[in-house]
Amino acid sequence: MDKKWWKEGVVYQIYPRSFxxxxxxxxxxxxxxxxxxxxxxxxxxxxxxxxxxYDSPNxxxxxxxxxxxxIMDEFGTMEDWEELLEALHTKGIKLIMDLxxxxxxxxxxxxxxxxxxxxxxxxxxxxxxxxxxxxxPNNWRSNFGGSAWQYDKVTGEYYLHLFSKKQPDLNWENRxxxxxxxxxxxxxxxKGIDGFRMDVINFISKAPGLPDGDSExxxxxxxxxxxxxxxxxxxxxxxxxxxxxxxxxIMTVGEMPFVTADEGAKYVAxxxxxxxxxxxxxxxxxxxxxxxxxxxxxxxKLTDLxxxxxxxxxxxxxxxxxxxxxxxxxxxxxxxxxFGDDKEYRVESAKMLATLLxxxxxxxxxxxxxxxxxxxxxxxxxxxxxxxxxLNKLQEEQKKGNIDDLNEMMxxxxxWSRDNARTPIQWDNSQHAGxxxxxxxxxxxxxxxxxxxxxxxxxxxxxxxxYQDLISLRKEEPIIVYGDYQLLLExxxxxxxxxxxxxxxxxxxxxxxFAEKPEFKLPDDISFQEQELLISNYDVSKEEGIDKINLQPxxxxxxxxx
Length: 562
Ligand code: GLC
Ligand code: CA
What we know:
binds alpha-D-glucopyranose, binds calcium ion, alpha/beta, 17% strand, 17 helices, Immunoglobulin-like, five-stranded antiparallel beta sheet, Oligo-1,6-glucosidase, domain 2
């Protein structure tokens, strides 16, 4: 196994709008992050992934970029950004930037020029087509609802947008566009960043002729079979790797909705020279019911989740690839509300889930606030929702006549909305949880008096210190990083257990996923002389044997066996 810093590290994702506001305008900013670098250092993380801070009209909170080499005014200046990089590097923390190059904002200069005429040099930077008598060029739907095409009267043609109509898709077939993107990436790398997280990067290559989609075939929105892992995506990533990535000691992780494990392995197999890791989505899509995110989640069984994570562990191990480990981010509900229990066992279940993320094979990603067990928001009215994805999709349902009032859907919104993850970090129990002295751009979760950083830091039993322990264990025990993975108790519906093995040492991980109290039985064929408890979320006596364990609700234990 090749040793790499990005395999040994732990990544912390910052969604800047919601992290910390330094100037009282209600919006998190770069100086706000700088104020908290000591906090990140205390947690012990190795890498920060910063969600977009580039110039943007904020149709999709910065994922609609109007200038790749400028900082959004609301977040600060390029000098602030440089100060942040310096502050992180001084603490030995690396910085990876979000790279959003499937699309730009419609306010990006390239698009402003592109839309002006049919024969300007930037026309072909985007995907323009004639309509079919009064209808768009094909039946593709946007991932945020509605048609994926927007008519533009200036030239009488439609442009493709897989996300909002203010996010036109770039045309990767165009060599000049690709060169411009590589130049821009090189410019950031030369400023000293340590890598990229690449937004929906497996969508960049569209099938020739842009054929109509078939809802029976596509894995996502109508038409998705013609751009998810599209025909030239590997060619483009190899080119990007050769021209840019390979010249630096950096890490790369590609966000890849609907990618399968077989395809995923191709993106990360080291000898193919594409990316280091992918964010796969199978385990954050598996609980969707028949109506997707417009309906209740389906009941899931632990074996459903295990099957998915197991498949990725085994596949990438076979191919010498590397996993990224996450259960939530700025697009997903809070992990403790979704996979754990955000009420009675909030603390225990948050620690149990953290144990999973930090002991599987791969690089763990912590989403801001996860380390204090932040929960979903009890949204009561659609007026509290800011997310374009939630709002667009609900408005579409309303237009179709499926609902009268958007507020009928609040159950669904409370479960699925991306805004659950986007409420401000709860720093303390003062007004607005210490996030801002002004009015926050999105409401603070009312549980902030109970759940906040200050309280966590004052309690040695808090989720925060459990994360700190997990992170330092990773540094002390190479088996956690480099050990082989082997699933135990495959069919157990309560317990997720596995072994990691490295040079004669074994790591045994036992996770009780629910509030019941199942009995754990150690499989007979696991032999060892000595056991050492490395971490647990309940008090456990060192003498206790491990052949049989009566597990507590959401109990997690990690043993080293010799
Ligand atoms: C990715 C981002 C998400 C964004 C979308 C379009 O999925 O994570 O926040 O809305 O791409 O850029
Ligand atoms: Ca601010």
